[in-house]
């Protein structure tokens, strides 16, 4: 070993030249924040929330059972004798049934989407069921289908419920014009949100 290295090894630490000083470690303790107080509800608030949830589940259950119970519509084809062969008739029948299933699936998707928007509207309007689902309100099939397909359908239904004379006027128009009038109401509600 070299003399300098041996001297450094033999010399105690206090005698050696130390140029670096040890750093002290700073330990930070987190500041405890008090936990927010739990929200309390009155019995009436709990009853109202549970009642709304039960009503929503009841409506959902009823919709599901209505769609299951509905028989498929009859296939509207000319008599088998008017086809070239039995195979041509079978093919036409299969094609028609396929088209009906696809239409039913699309209608089911539209209705499901509408019912989700309808649930949101029930939260927006306290009297939604009494106003929009009024049995005395004149809503034709064309109007109902247009409302269901609309992104703001529940708002349109509520508008018509609050304006029964307007609903009656529209119901007397031809189906295509009814759809146009529903579109006008939809545009009016979009430009003037309440």
Write a structural description:
There is one protein chain. The protein is built from eight helices and no strands. Helix 5 (141-149) crosses helix 6 and helix 6 (153-162) crosses helix 8. The longest helix has 39 residues, at 86-124. It has 194 residues and is mainly α.
Keywords for this structure?
8 helices; mainly alpha; 194 residues; 63% helix; extended
Coarse structural class? mainly alpha
Shape: extended
Average pLDDT reading: 78
Helix proportion range: 55-70%
C-alpha-based Rg, rounded: 37 Å
Total DSSP E strands: 0
Report the order of strands and helices.
Answer: HHHHHHHH
Cα end-to-end separation: 92 Å
The portion of residues forming beta strands comes to: under 5%
The major sheet is characterized as:
none
The number of distinct helices, counting runs of at least 4 residues, comes to 8
Question: What are the low-pLDDT stretches, counting only 5+ consecutive residues below 50?
Answer: 13-18
What's the topology here?
Layout: H1 3-10, H2 43-69, H3 86-124, H4 128-132, H5 141-149, H6 153-162, H7 164-171, H8 175-191
Overview in brief:
The chain is mostly helical. The protein is 63% helix and 0% strand.
């Amino acid at each position: 070993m070299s003399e300098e290295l041996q001297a450094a090894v033999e010399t105690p630490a206090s005698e050696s030249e130390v140029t670096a000083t040890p750093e002290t470690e700073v330990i930070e303790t987190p500041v405890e924040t008090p936990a927010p107080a739990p929200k309390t509800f009155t019995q009436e608030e709990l009853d109202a929330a549970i009642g709304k949830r039960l009503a929503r589940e009841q409506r959902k259950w009823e919709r599901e059972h209505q769609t299951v119970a509905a028989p498929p519509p009859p296939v509207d084809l000319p008599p088998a004798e008017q086809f070239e062969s039995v195979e041509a008739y079978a093919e036409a029948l299969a094609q028609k049934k396929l088209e009906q299933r696809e239409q039913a699936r699309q209608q089911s998707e539209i209705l499901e989407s509408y019912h989700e928007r309808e649930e949101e509207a029930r939260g927006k309007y306290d009297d939604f069921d009494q106003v929009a689902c009024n049995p005395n309100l004149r809503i034709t099939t064309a109007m109902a289908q247009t409302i269901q397909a609309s992104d703001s359908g529940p708002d349109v239904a509520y508008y018509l419920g609050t304006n029964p004379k307007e609903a009656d006027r529209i119901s007397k128009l031809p189906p295509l014009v009814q759809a146009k009038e529903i579109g006008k109401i939809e545009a009016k509600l979009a430009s003037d949100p309440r």
